[in-house]
Predict the structure.
Amino acid sequence: MHAPNLHLLPRIDFPTGETADAVESLLRPFHLVASASDDVISGTVGRFRVTDRNGIPGKEYSLPRFIVTGPEGGDRPIRIGIFGGLHGDEPESILGLLPFFRSIVADPELIRGYVLFLYPLVNPTGYERGTRASATGKDLNREFWSGSEEPEVFLIEQELIDHRFDGIVSLHADSDSRGVYGYARGATLSAEILAPALRAAAEALPHDPSPVIDGWPARDGIITEGYEGILSAPDASHHATGREQAFARGPQPFEIVFETPQQAPVTQQVEATRLALLSILDNYRTFIAFSQNL
């Protein structure tokens, strides 16, 4: 269900039930931010319809995408994909992108050398219903690279293949967590980037100190294991075929899942997300610069 403290957020109509314009209301502030900059490209990824039990197509959906280009820096732009709203009952993962979006549009130097691909709402049908799963009853974050027929999964998989991100960040909110934490996957430097991000987020919310989080061993809020089928780059070791295999043979991006404690005030969660994302970008830029000087 939706967290009870969403009313604390200013200027956002956040519906709690299924309404015809729920998604439009949610995304309106994102479009307002985008309209303030010539360096933002607003668009959508694909179109699909949800079919009811009688096989009758219903409302049409698409996945919003905002591409933000920072000032030039380095030999080539660093491409980062940031994803929110994989679970419809975690609206904080969607709203967490908004202050970050405002910050980088107001101060483009924060993303010098980057091209960011922001996907604030991967699961629009789940968001409308206030459910973890999509309208088909599937947990989208267990469906990736498994031959899934879920349209949202297919569309995001195509984005992951086409844009070949250097880094992938997924945002979530955990109703049982005692603080912020994260999963570090993919490239070995993922944990090295996540650790300072958790420290930066601590200005708003402390990290979860538990030795076991979400069923996985954790240290200082960092988990290095994880579930199969989550949003990630194609992995040559399993499932991927064709174009996915060709992609997977290249350098693997860093992959971070950043989680906020859903019971905390939303204002603190979104600020923790903003601080963590800025830290991730700053530290990865430093890593790239150091690597080029070796």
